[in-house]
Write a structure and sequence with these properties.
This protein is of the alpha+beta class. The chain has 3 helices and 4 strands, in the order ββββααα. It has a 4-stranded antiparallel beta sheet with strand order 1-2-3-4. A hairpin with a 4-residue loop joins strand 2 and strand 3. The longest helix is centred in the C-terminal third of the chain and has 10 residues. The chain is globular and about 35 Å long.
Amino acid sequence: MSRYTKTHPKEAHLRIAYGYDFPQQAYFYGIFDSTKEDENGDEKIVSDLEKYFVGCSRNELFEKLQEFEAPEKHTSMVALDLPIE
């Protein structure tokens, strides 16, 4: 599994965690909000939990990576439907 994080360029309280799950062969992402806490006091995930734990489509992740201005290497790998390494 690969996992990366990136803070939103315009909304610094938002952070995306994303990557590729090799056993499931699926992309995933979760968006966390540092201004909100879950029941454990951690940053609250504000995106659909299914996208983080089950996976998402290549197009969904590609759009989020562009929105968060993720590294070009990661965006390109997703565009080519390759695992993010």
